[in-house]
Amino acid sequence: MSNANDYQALNDTVISNGYCVGCGACAVPEESPFTMNLNDYGQYEAVLASDRVFARASVDIEKVCPFGSGAPSEDQIGKDLFDESCDYDSQVGYYQGTYAGYVAEGAFRDRGSSGGMGTWILNELLDQGYVDHVINVRPGAEGREDGSMLFAYTVSRSTGETQAGGKSRYYPVELSEVLREVRETPGRYAIVGLPCFIKSVRLLQRQDPVLAERIRYCAGLVCGHLKSTRYADSLAWQMGIEPSRLETIDFRVKNPSAPANRYSTSAGSADRQEVVPTNELFGTDWGAGAFKYKACDFCDDVFAETADIVVGDAWLPGYVEDSKGTNIIVTRHPDIQALVDNARQEQRLELDDISVAQAIQSQDAGLRHRRISIAYRLYREQREGRWVPPKRISPSKHLKPRYEQKRQRLRVRLRDLSHHAFIGALKDRDLDTYLKAMRPVYREYKKHSHSWMTRYLWRIKGAVKRCLRLVPGFQRL
């Protein structure tokens, strides 16, 4: 049970230092003094209500936050859940099966961002009677206090409703409202979410017997990072739709004539619909991290290690060329493994067995950022005297090759600048305020993102130009 000291501790560490990912776990327990708020940057964050600070919540609030002090790590949670039935890898977590493939039945693959596996497993759990309800993210926010949100967690009670929750949503959501509904409505539930959200559900289940009994399965999504609402706004604005007029957005429109990673973005208002190749829009370089939550730079879980199954994109040679999309799948729960095996035998799923090494390769960039470079980011925060959340990776100032340190600093700068510059653009009612602030920093970032040979040649070219400037007649080179 929490008291005022626990609330203040969470507020003074996680929230005050920018590590709240907006999952809403701290606002779920009865008598919690926390509420969820959408800030000016378009990020959900927990807010401590001063008039309720002396309430006594039914759980230890600090230990339901995925970044909170004292909360068990993904390794600890995974061991408790999966140790008896799974093998273990330090980057993937626990696993029974590892696959690359897609859904061969129905329209799951056509309607999904990739191979359709995320929606399929939720539908299968519902169809086969394993659960009564599915908690997923769907367009619109019917019945919510803030009707301006384009996406929200809802409870789906039919396969049609579950299907509406397909596709990737690079957009903030929070769990507190929907989990309160779970507590009020008996039944068996499955939930899908990002790694930190699934971890927060597991942490709640450790202290809340109602949620532990009702939420039977957790499906995770391989994660790069979470975006604020301003990411959607910025893409639509570049397509000629001002943020105040944006009504719909699809972040992953497949292009039949291009590889799976060359998709488009579709945005709509009341009187306009636009579709543009995503790589033609500024700010879509995932590594640069525009509109990223700070918390995401301090998360070391890529493969949703506390989930019963995790699904992502198969960014692997031989799969990425297929424009229809292919999933990476890691199974952990015996029930889900059985569903996958049966559907595979019935040819409803087309799956290739792949090695753990191939699964890791499919998410190579994300793992390098989240499992290696995080050590340097932790070191920089600690060097400035700031609190950092407990992580499985220790802080270190040694990051090799050395240019990677500069690249990490530029990623942090781009992350922070995107939030502030877009606020300026909204005030000016001019998208160029954002673009002009970001582009010079992004150019500097790209210069440090080339291969070592390219950087070496750039240095030689720069040295030659400096020498030639000293020679009469070459000043203009």
Q: Mean pLDDT, rounded to whole units?
A: 91
The low-pLDDT segments are 141-146
Largest sheet: 8 strands, mixed
The count of DSSP E runs of length 2 or more, i.e. the number of strands, is 15
Structural class estimated from helices and strands: alpha+beta
Integer count of domains: 3
Radius of gyration: 23 Å
Q: Can you list the strand order of the major beta sheet? A: 7-6-8-9-13-14-5-15
Shape: globular
Termini separation comes to: 70 Å
Strand content: 15-25%
Helicity, as a percent range? 25-40%
Structure annotation, total helices? 16
Describe the structure.
- The N and C termini lie far apart (70 Å).
- 45% of the residues are buried.
- The strands form 4 sheets. The protein has an 8-stranded mixed sheet with strand order 7-6-8-9-13-14-5-15, sandwiched between helices.
- The radius of gyration is 23 Å and the shape is globular.
- The longest helix has 26 residues, at 403-428.
- Mean pLDDT is 91; it is low at 141-146.
- The protein is built from 16 helices and 15 strands.
- The chain is of the alpha+beta class and 477 residues long.
- The chain has helices spanning 4-15, 74-82, 108-111, 117-127, 159-163, 176-184, 195-207, 209-214, 229-238, 334-345, 356-362, 364-372, 374-383, 403-428, 431-447, 452-468, and strands spanning 34-38, 44-48, 87-89, 93-95, 97-103, 133-139, 151-156, 189-193, 215-221, 248-253, 264-269, 272-277, 309-313, 327-331, 349-353.
- It folds into 3 domains: 4-227 and 291-366, no CATH class; 229-280, no CATH class; 399-477, no CATH class.
- Residues 98-179 form the Coenzyme F420 hydrogenase/dehydrogenase beta subunit N-terminal domain.
- This is Coenzyme F420 hydrogenase/dehydrogenase, beta subunit C-terminal domain.
- InterPro entries: Co_F420_Hydgase/DH_bsu_N, FRHB/FDHB/HCAR-like, FrhB_FdhB_C.
- Residues 188-355 form the Coenzyme F420 hydrogenase/dehydrogenase beta subunit C-terminal domain.
